[in-house]
Amino acid sequence: MSDAALDYIARAEKLAAQVDGIGPDVPLRPVASVGVIGAGTMGGGIAMNFANIGIPVVMVEREQAALDRGLATIRGNYQRSVQRGKLTEAALEARMALLTGTLDFDALAAPDLIIEAIFEDMAIKKDSFARLDKVAKAGAILASNTSFLDVNEIASATSRPADVLGMHFFSPANVMRLLEVVRGAATAPDVLKTAMETGVKIGKVPVVSGVCPGFIGNRMLATRQAAANDMLMQGAMPWDIDRALTDFGFPMGPFQMSDLAGLDIGWNRATSRGETLRDRLCELDRRGQKSRAGFYDYAEDRSRTPSPLVEQLIRDYVAEKGGVAETLSRDDMLARLLTPMVEEGRKILAEGIAQRASDIDVVWVNGYGWPRATGGPMYWAGVR
Asked: What is the distance between the alpha carbons of residues 226 and 52, in angstroms, rounded to a whole number?
């Protein structure tokens, strides 16, 4: 199965770049310059993709300290490439010279493509796009890096929804190959085609998605996370659940991923009432790798070990909430984690959110670490 699966996913990646109904007669819009709103981890990584191929980028931030931090992070990323012999000092300086940082939002009047990469909050995004609508030149493509929110609602903040779409990069954006290109209800064909071809030019594997919460990848991921949380309530431990996936071939499981991202994303101590396991972990300052304690305990080198404290915390929580302990084999766990994903993939296909089953596989292999040798969730499940 491995050789056939590898051949399948290679062909699927090429096919994903083809958009149904958009042929060679649809012209491309020029992308000779790019604007990025936000110089944080995502914004900086996005900007690097364009500097890497010689396209100048203007990065807009609200505060000088955040802008300086973002540019310093980019330089540090390039410096590590120099140290590994993958980049010369001259190339580093040439790429940095293509990046212009500013606090002036009006600097976004010139770029052909503007990508918003700010906090995942609809009101904040709509405000940014309303401002962009007044500043950006006619014909500029306006893209949001949102990973979850309604691109149609974001577009409604402008007078030009045909120019708006989603360009969902994956973190770290300068490394990860997947790019979900989200087609809004009003997105013009030339805007979609340009975004897709731009993705290929910067070394990404672009996949078209329709608008729905979480698009293709995160919508399916949510079902896996829900299944993992349900198993905790049945007495399974995070490390056992994670191991079911890593043994299958994933680089990490859901609780390792949560620790890496940070358990305190969206958490607030002032409003926390200990209602969830995450609340209780954060209340103990177990916020993930960055605090050297989350679902796992972490050493200074970030190596992880199962936590006796967390094990007891889970057992107490399950007893308190009336969970029923079961003995789940690794195969049971794997089936409970992957089956809901495949079923959600079927719905995504039926709703027309994805063009084809193979596009879903491309998303999961390139964005979420699904083992390439199995072809992706739909191929693995026999869905064509």
From this structure: 38
